[in-house]
Design goal:
Pathway: Amino-acid biosynthesis; L-arginine biosynthesis; N(2)-acetyl-L-ornithine from L-glutamate: step 2/4. This is acetylglutamate kinase. The strands form three sheets. The chain has an eight-stranded mixed sheet with strand order 5-8-2-1-11-13-14-12, sandwiched between helices. With about 350 residues, the chain is α/β, with parallel strands linked by helices. The protein is about 35% helix and about 20% strand. The protein starts with about 60 loop residues before the first helix and ends with a strand.
Amino acid sequence: MFVSKVSIPLRHHPFFSSPNPNPNPNPNPNPKAIPLKPLRLHPLRSSIPPSPPITTSTASPPTPAQTRVDILSESLPFIQRFRGKTIVVKYGGAAMKSAALQRNVLSDLVLLSCVGLRLVLVHGGGPEINAWLLRTGHEPKFHNGLRVTDAHTMEVVEMVLAGKINKNLVAEINMLGGTGVGLCGKDARLLTARPSSESAVLGFVGEVARVDPSVLRPILADGHIPVIASVAADEAGQGYNVNADTAAGELAAAVGAEKLILLTDVAGILEDRNDPGSLVKEIDIAGIRRMMEEGKVAGGMIPKVSCCVRSLAQGVRTASIIDGRVPHSLLLEILTDEGAGTMITG
């Protein structure tokens, strides 16, 4: 079974590691550690009843080792729920800018792969593209939030996304004990692009015309993690810059993913955009459309929500928009009933 292909021991993953190497009981745990909350299993997250609570002696506080064992035990129903299922994760934004958060996200991917989930990572890399454009003497240009992509910009986009960022992510996944396989939409006709409806203004910005996921199936079956840069080509071979959220949504539908997760720079969808405490934890398609009509979903959140709705309409079971700035947000979303953002259901 492919779990054996991943050599990183679970005890070395930061989510399960002790915040204090001292083996003595520590009644004052690291305040940065993720607090454990009682699980309230949602039918969409697991159809398996939770494991009975483990009773421990009340004579002394639990040791770090006992805490790790309790976490693993409580995670069992969620692991059983998602084992063998495909999860597509779109990665970018603030979680990509910070080296610490990047290591955090990738180690979570390796852990989830280790326990039997099939992970597909789709990435962008806007800030680094901007930096390289400036280094080559070109000012980045945008129109309605989308990058204007002339011939020179397209060269830089492909160099940065399919070259530098993609291979760095693959190398780090491999270093963490997983097996990353770097691809872009051009490989094996994975994504075929067509010009955007605003191509007269945006240039080589593309939409996804077709997805051929056949190259992904043996990679996933062997327990590897495909890492996909969001550039593609049209039928004539012309390269296009494709929005990473859109690419992830179309790939999720094509591979029959159980779940699509978009890592973003916000907490999720807010009932009141001015109130960070108004996070909508779960909503269906009808509810999200109502929020869009009422103007509660606007700006940069519209294409993300639209991508989620489109993937759900094509058979993806749930789509989540979560805060990539929160450490271990992927594990919180998949291995707990609390989640880490907004989950949209069909």
